[in-house]
Amino acid sequence: MFYRRALRQLEFWMQKKDRKPLILRGARQVGKTTLVRMFANKFERFVELNLELEEDRTIFSNNLSIQDIVQSISLQKNVLLINTKALIFIDEIQNSPLAISLLRYFHEEFKNLYIIAAGSLLEAVIGDQQISFPVGRVEYLFLFPVTFEEFLQAQKNEKMIKSFQKIPIPEFAHNILLKQFHKYVMLGGMPEVINNWLESNNILSLKTIYRSLMLSYHDDISKYARNKSMVDIIRHTIDSAPLEAGKRITFQGFGSSNYRSREIGEALRSLQNARIIDLIYPTTATELPMIPNKRKKPKLQFLDTGLINYSMGLFDQYLGIEDISTIYKGRIIEHIVGQELKVLLSENEQKLSFWVREKKQSQAEIDFIVSYKGKLIPIETKSGNEGKLRSLHLYMEKSDSEFAVRFYAGVLKKQKIKLSLGKEFKLLNLPYYLVGKLFHYLEYYV
């Protein structure tokens, strides 16, 4: 077990006076159960129910009152739940629609009980509307793969962590953190992978874990296919998605197939509901509101960069690498920046987005766009000098923002850029490993 930033959000939820039962959402194997077990040390009592087990599921199958259910849990688990601060974790809750419908009553009748629910197939069945949670009576928290900061925390190197957290970072720490970031990008953020790597430091031993994860996604999502033909399409889509990650995609013929747009669209939505992929639609706006344009081709974001490296056989390319923007034509670095940004934006109630301008005589694209203090801030993940950022210059000429960000392999620095039409803007150049600290650095410099 190692530190996860979602613990802070769980602590905030615990302290709320109007707290509701919490539904922990996220793809399989991102660490939901482990997170709750870590959080359990904040409580006097902890009960874990797994509704895949008949003995636990039976508690919710006898039309008992909520008072009798609490008594039944106490007796079965031999834990006192009355008049004590207790956490009840209901795992695999999708196996009991009755348990879902009863969630609202726990907090209404038992203020001392803190309820968290989760499930490995929960995302698929929620997206497919096969189950329905009490509207307005539950809260949601999304858990993502391990971030770079969590990766550093897992290694328990206090000096390195302090250097990373200091704003601005000390210059002497740059090369050390960049090398650590290269390891992180290679491994990805699946907790089992990180734990195994810390114990063995052997990349070959990880391939079995990556393979097992991909097979588990095959098995999970295929259960919700409407027919045998759709099972085959979904499996093709899962296998092809890592190869298409970081690209703008077309549904028709996705993954060099003969499948139609409608079939691929259904398969991609199944994967999106399971949080294995995300379809990021572009915006054409240079000021708020940032409305996604769903008539344009989306960019495909996969669950985890480590799984992409495994699927594409890229591990050897990380040996002795100085700038990971050279791997796979820059798609890997853009993808990991998106993966880190997605966590950060989720905590700030934003979604991942990018910007395009598509005209016959002028094509332009900005890797990512975020909202900050009423302005849209463009983000690029390019190497080289700032003169090569043609799309960024075009965007800044049209934008009312005076700030832009570039993530690259170099050191932290701020520049003033003068455009051809006379406008000036500030370019904040941040090392790749500072994506998770983006808003801290914008606050510091802006």
Rough outline = globular
- Which segments are poorly predicted (pLDDT under 50) over 5 or more consecutive residues? none
Total beta strand runs: 14
Query: What percentage of the residues does DSSP assign to strands (E)?
Result: 15-25%
- Rounded to the nearest angstrom, the radius of gyration is 23 Å
Instruction: Label the structural class.
Output: alpha/beta
Q: What does the main sheet amount to? A: 5 strands, parallel
Our measurement of the CA-to-CA distance between the termini, rounded to an integer number of angstroms, reads 37 Å
Helical content stands at: 40-55%
Features:
446 residues, Rossmann fold, five-stranded mixed beta sheet, 17 helices, 14 strands, 17% strand
Task: Describe what you observe in this structure.
With 446 residues, the chain is α/β, with parallel strands linked by helices. Among the domains are: 6-142, Rossmann fold (3-Layer(aba) Sandwich), CATH 3.40.50; 148-279 and 302-324, no CATH class. It contains 17 helices and 14 strands. The strands form four sheets. The protein has a five-stranded parallel beta sheet, sandwiched between helices. Helix 12 crosses helix 13 (261-273). The longest helix is centred in the middle third of the chain and has 20 residues, at 203-222. It is globular.
